[in-house]
């Protein structure tokens, strides 16, 4: 893998964190300790000179599907999910600023007293000024996911890669927590990922990346070195691109 003059394989990244990454032991709610762990990982890569933007999900608080399954209107349930991502974004901002990582939160749904509205050019300016930018509110539209928001924002800010941070060290043909024989992929094409219905991201997000040739890298967030290694161009996790 080629690296730039700073020795980096990727200069600007969009990190997609699921809401679960922020949750406590039971997989629910917000754990400030978890937020601190995430902040430390982000600081490590930020100090390498990488521009970091983040999209955070809300599965730890609310998913539109939960409401839908209980008979709620889908759009209303989805708006609740988007609002929940802003709570997660604020928890991350707080943890980042506690370790002196300059951060701005932008929300796709306007709420000016807690976050800046999403303005693409302003987000880019923050990155140029070495600030971490956290995008809350998903895409601002119901019927989408924060994976799709991550793909969209990555393209808008000119990210070199979308890094999907997970609990496992890449994409497997089966759930590695349930099947010892599960095989890990080091490299996949977008089309294979879609056809095999591998659980990388939802199909809307993958299609968007495919159409715009944005590589997706799936890495383990909890492996202390994985993110840094990936940014230096070492082979970690699973890379999804044109194949
Ligand atoms: N959501 C939405 N539009 C978006 C992004 C998110 O409606 O552009 C809603 C949707 O209901 C989703 C919830 O917000 O279930 C939380 O996002 P997601 O499920 O992607 O979170 P994650 O699984 O990453 O924690």
UniProtKB/TrEMBL annotation:
Magnesium in keyword set: no
Please give the Pfam families that the UniProt record associates with this protein.
Answer: AA_kinase (PF00696)
Q: Which UniProt keywords are given for this protein, alphabetically ordered?
A: Allosteric enzyme, ATP-binding, Cytoplasm, Kinase, Nucleotide-binding, Pyrimidine biosynthesis, Transferase
Top enzyme class of this protein? transferase
Could you tell me the superkingdom of the organism this chain comes from? Bacteria
Per the record, what are the reactions this protein catalyses? UMP + ATP = UDP + ADP
Q: Mind telling me what this protein is named?
A: Uridylate kinase
This chain's source organism reads Candidatus Brevifilum fermentans
Query: Which gene underlies this protein?
Result: pyrH
């Amino acid at each position: 893998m080629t690296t730039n003059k700073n020795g980096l394989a990727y200069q600007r990244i969009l990190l997609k964190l699921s809401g679960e990454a922020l949750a406590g032991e039971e997989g629910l709610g917000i754990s400030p300790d978890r937020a601190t762990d995430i902040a430390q990982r982000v600081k490590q890569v930020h100090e390498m000179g990488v521009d970091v933007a983040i999209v955070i999900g809300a599965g730890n608080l609310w998913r539109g599907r939960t409401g839908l399954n209980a008979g709620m209107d889908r759009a209303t349930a989805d708006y609740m999910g988007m609002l929940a991502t802003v709570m997660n974004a604020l928890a991350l901002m707080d943890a980042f600023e506690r370790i002196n990582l300059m951060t701005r939160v932008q929300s796709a749904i306007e709420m000016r007293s807690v976050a800046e509205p999403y303005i693409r050019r302003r987000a880019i300016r923050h990155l140029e000024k070495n600030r971490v930018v956290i995008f809350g509110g998903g895409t601002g539209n119901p019927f989408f996911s924060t994976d799709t928001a991550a793909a969209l924002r990555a393209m808008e800010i000119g990210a070199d890669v979308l890094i999907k941070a997970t609990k496992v060290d890449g994409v497997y043909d089966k759930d590695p927590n349930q099947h010892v024989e599960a095989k890990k992929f080091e490299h996949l094409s977008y089309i294979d990922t879609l056809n095999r219905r591998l659980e990388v991201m939802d199909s809307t997000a993958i299609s968007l990346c495919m159409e715009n040739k944005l590589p997706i890298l799936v890495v383990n967030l909890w492996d202390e070195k994985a993110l840094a290694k990936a940014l230096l161009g070492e082979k970690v996790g699973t890379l999804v691109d044109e194949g």
